[in-house]
Amino acid sequence: MKKKTITLAQGNGGEENNELISKVFYKAFKNEILEQSEDAAVIHGGELAFSTDSFTVSPLFFAGADIGKLAVCGTCNDLAMMGAKPKYLTCSVIIEEGFELESLERIVESMQRELEINGAIVVSGDTKVVPRGSVDKIFINTTGIGEIIKKGISSNSITCDDVILVNRDIGCHGATIFVAREGMEMSSALESDCNSLYPQVKALLDANIAITAMRDATRGGAAAVLNEWAKQSDVCIEVEEEKIPVSDEVGGICEMLGFEATALANEGTFVLAVKKEDSDKAVEILKSFDVCAKASIIGSVTSMHPKKVILKSAWGTKRFLETPTGELLPRIC
Amino acid sequence: MMELSNLYDDFRNPDTIKAYASKITLLAKKLDREIGIMEVCGGHTHTIMKYGLPQLMPKNIDFIHGPGCPVCIMPKERIDHAYALAMQEDVILVTLGDMIKVPGSNESLQDARSKGADVRFVYSPLDTLKIALENPTKEVIFFAIGFETTTPMTAALLDLIIKKDIQNIKLHINHVTVPEVMTTLLVDSDNRSVKNRIDAFLGPSHVSVITGSKIYEPFALEYGKPVVVSGFEPVDVMQSIAMILEQLIENRSEVEIQYTRAVDRGGNKEAQKLIEKYFEKAPTFLWRGLGEVAHSSWKLKDVYNTYDAEVIYDAVLPKEQCMDHKLCLCGEILKGMAKPPQCTIFGKSCIPSNPIGSCMVSSEGACAAYYRYGNL
Fold first, then answer.
1. Number of neighbouring beta carbons within 10 Å of residue A211
2. Domains and their CATH numbers in chain A
3. Is residue A330 predicted with pLDDT exceeding 70?
4. Interface pTM (ipTM) of the complex?
5. What is the CA radius of gyration of chain B?
6. Residues of A in contact with B206 (CB under 8 A)
7. Are residues B319 and B334 in the same domain?
8. B125 shares a domain with B239
């Protein structure tokens, strides 16, 4: 009998990743809270949101952000997606022997800046240094607790009364990292969307927008979020392709390499399900943020093909939008 | 400023697409029979399914998805070669994109990598040079795949290896050619017609940039099948379908070029010379789903044996034959005699993450395209 080994595709945020999680982790840790499959667990009688995330990005510094900013945004955004105000974070770092102190200081400063934006503090931490080669430069884990200011936000509650929005143009983070990692020689204004989402969420909640669900479209991109929602809420999500905001830079990289912008990772982009009557107002509020100039309603919720996402073209054809699979690999000809 | 989007926006213009849909509907009415149009190239299959073009076709026009995806048609025997090479000590195996996830008789290159093999994918075969220079103590093997489109790049790589006297790059050649396999879809080895539903061909475009459109002339002249060499955008494909229907209505069978912005009759002469310098036709190549096809692939000329990984590593390359799965309908699908959903294992035991038949292997295969985009 062959020994099975873990492949890179099983960490893609898409189908293989989901399978690994459900067959290994959910199987072992099974409990009601975990099975809600939300961005952050809702605990303590619905008052607190609780989430953890590890950061292994390469390169550590990239256009628009670095691993430190990412490590704070990632966890705080997961909390914000549950309608929570990020409050307390832990910070664990695993550092490779030989890592430059100056880089570490840059990373930590960048974490502190982002914590201030969220109004959160680091209250506990851990530092490990491991021999050269045991990790690649530095890995960071953050865990966070947030205070829920709007209860009941859930990816399991979406109905046909909701419409689907995104807060900005999609795919910038995935495209930026890909270009940086492959050392592609192209000059462009492209930079990661890495950003704290709590200020945007707070503005929406302050205006009493009827938000059903929010999810930040990290690994697996918008396509993964929409598919998770369709399955969790047993609905069909119909998206109009031309309404999905994609920048020229991201669109161009997708053209050259055969990617779909909807499958590219984001770190400051979230999808919202909002009650129809509040959707225009939600777009207006989002657009008051500089980075959200392209906020848009992208689709509706129907009962056409439950558990499926349909992408509609401007010339009247339709197709399923699937959960991304495999590694991020280009088509070859 | 010129944006990349300027290059494709017009070719995805909704009004133009709709106008061609109306035109095709009118033309199809003049043909009082079912018409099967084969898009040979996997890139076209992808375009057709991604943009939902079958939904714009009248009832009597049907797309038949051809064998033009180099990853899909790669037999497990060759993937087993790649796997065996990757598992050798001090070898870096380099290949192009999708190849990494395709399982051979046992496992895929992605599995080999997770077991410690050094497997890398590149965008250009010439990137292999950089890997070889950075790893002088390793043997770098380029597992070359693709149709006429990518063959010149492999030839260019060998050209540089020889000119720069680089010792640590070897090539494993799996380059296949289009016309021979198109012929096997129409006639058997005794030149007798085989059962198929192909009335016309949408000619591959990137292949034709290299070869020129002349390679399709026998299909129009001898077999009476119209061929239109088409671009990859939805407007290109819609216009090409209209051109094919006009030929059929007027009882013509010619080779026409829709993709005039990149293709002419003669092709890229420099690229052709480079191929002829280093390669010769192999007697036969085993196509996954279609079996052996004579003279349908290239091999390195014998004088370049010292660069040929298949010769050098002969002792470690597996020789076992792998049978195609009994229930798999890929052969029938490629001839237009069956559609993916008619296959009993489609979407059940045969899925993109665990493909059984060739057409499920890459996103350019017919079954994978049906699975991914649905046939709404």
1. 22
2. 38-148 (3.30.1330.10), 162-320 (3.90.650.10)
3. no
4. 0.78
5. 21
6. 333
7. no
8. yes
